[in-house]
Amino acid sequence: MTSDPPPERPEPSVVGIERTKLSATFLDTVAVVITGTGLVAPFFAFLYGLSNLSADQIRFFALAAPGWVIPGVGLHLVARAVLGGLGERRGSRSTHGSGDRS
Q1: Transmembrane region positions (predicted)?
Q2: Given phi > 0 = left and psi -120 to 50 = alpha, else beta, which region is 54?
Q3: Which tens digit of pLDDT belongs to each residue from 33-69?
């Protein structure tokens, strides 16, 4: 029983690589916005006295923070996975820092 080698993937085009990077950047930006909206903004509003929050509201925001942070971190990890897939598609050939320019 001989197994055939897996077919080689075609080398991605420059446009495909840039689209992948743009998609990853978009996902990472959405992750930052989600985290900022749910965690950072209420913290600074309270810190600088921009809102009159009761103790119950402060408790609510403290308990709701993971509900904002977890999706933000999740989207960030998805963006990293998108870029990681780009590295796997390009194979072991590196275009940066090889120093082999003879």
Answers
A1: 26-48, 60-83
A2: beta
A3: 988 888 787 778 778 877 777 778 778 877 888 888 8
**Residue from 14, 3, 35, 39 nearest 89 by CA:** 14
Question: Model pTM?
Answer: 0.60
CA atoms of 68 and 31, how far apart (whole Å): 9
In angstroms, the CA 87 to CA 95 distance is 11
Residue with tokens 């749910």, as numbered in its chain:
38
- Spell out the alpha helix ranges (H) of the chain: 14-35, 41-47, 55-90
Q: What residue segments make up the domains of the chain, in order of their start?
A: 14-90
